[in-house]
Amino acid sequence: MNNMDRIRELLQFAEEEPENPFNIYALALEYQNQDKEKASFYFNKLLEEHKNYLPTYYHAAAFYASEGNISLANKLYLEGLALAKRQNNQHAKKELDNAYLNFQLENE
Fold this sequence. Notes:
single chain; mainly alpha; Serine Threonine Protein Phosphatase 5, Tetratricopeptide repeat; 6 helices; TPR-like_helical_dom_sf; Tetratricopeptide repeat protein
């Protein structure tokens, strides 16, 4: 299955199950290397409509950091860390901690 086939399938899933954040998350990840505007659209949709979907924060923060939006990336890392703590998700918290530390070192 090529990238466009995956995107078509994910768009169909997102339409059939709009309450399922995974489909939107997968679209954001598929688009992040080929269509920055669409990736941003789907990350923002997740952050607005599915605030408690923890996987978003790691990838959205990294995406915005790579796009040069350092203040938004910083905000997303901190929000993700707070959410991981509230959800008592130690694995995600550790991954976010490591990513945030690297982000801080790269953007001193």
